[in-house]
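stage 2 :: seqdesign
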């Protein structure tokens, strides 16, 4: 998985790619001819449709191929397929290893943190553990991924770490309480309460997503990382399980002294 991260100034943004390296002839005999590198150029024209599935394109001044950052690979037990997390883009790419082709990309969508079972502790300085529901939509943003098969169905398991583009030349990192982050007063009449540091004020969010009508206000609070692991049906591209807030509740119950550890 060739991540293709930009340089710190964000003046160079390489394309993310996938390389398949044939080592059947032995490591010592490897040459460039053993390497097949796949790019995402054919998906550049599908950007809008892919974003509609829940893929995140962070920058507007680059191509989708440049924006995509492949992170981690898992290979099916029969070696016919691979799945690659496109971490910052909240998506998965599927690779056909027999034909050496990228056969598809699908966006993972968002997790509604206001629903029961999807709570989280939003502040690390309010002196308490408060696992609660908040009006936040969290992109899964998976890093590591593994797969397994039951019957004829392929499943992938994702670790929803979350990550943001935070460089000197461009950063999407902000907080709900930042002066430059204004919530739509119609959709968030309780904005002043949310912005308090003991509530969501210190909670890190993205400035690249959530402003749906191109004004100066955010209509959605977009978090990066779902604080969970998920299981997806890799054949239908559907979410079949998410661990919700169970990690946080387990740590609070079993190891409260490290609850807010970095």
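stage 2 :: out
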């Amino acid at each position: 998985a060739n991540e293709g991260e930009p340089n710190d100034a964000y003046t160079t943004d390489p394309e993310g790619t996938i390389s398949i390296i044939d080592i059947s002839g032995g490591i010592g005999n490897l040459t460039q001819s053993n390497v097949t590198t796949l790019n995402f150029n054919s998906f550049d024209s599908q950007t809008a449709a892919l974003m509609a599935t829940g893929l995140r394109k962070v920058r507007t001044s680059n191509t989708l191929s440049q924006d995509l950052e492949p992170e981690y690979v898992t290979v099916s037990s029969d070696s016919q397929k691979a799945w690659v997390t496109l971490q910052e883009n909240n998506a998965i790419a599927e690779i056909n290893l027999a034909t050496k082709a990228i056969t598809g990309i699908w966006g993972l969508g968002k997790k509604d943190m206001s629903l029961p079972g999807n709570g989280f502790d939003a502040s690390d300085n309010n002196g308490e553990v408060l696992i609660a529901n908040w009006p936040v939509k969290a992109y899964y943003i998976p890093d590591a991924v593994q797969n397994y098969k039951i019957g004829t169905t392929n499943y992938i398991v994702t670790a929803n770490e979350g990550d943001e583009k935070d460089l000197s030349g461009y950063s999407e990192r902000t907080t709900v309480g930042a002066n430059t982050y204004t919530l739509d007063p119609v959709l968030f009449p309780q904005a002043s309460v949310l912005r308090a540091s003991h509530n969501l004020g210190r909670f890190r969010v993205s400035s690249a997503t959530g402003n749906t009508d191109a004004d100066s206000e955010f209509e959605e609070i977009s978090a990066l990382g779902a604080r969970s692991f998920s299981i997806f049906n890799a054949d239908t591209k559907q979410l079949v399980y998410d661990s919700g807030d169970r990690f946080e509740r387990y740590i609070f119950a079993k190891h409260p002294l490290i609850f807010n550890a970095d």
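stage 3 :: structure notes
- The two ends are 27 Å apart (CA to CA).
- The CA atoms of residues 54 and 109 lie 4 Å apart.
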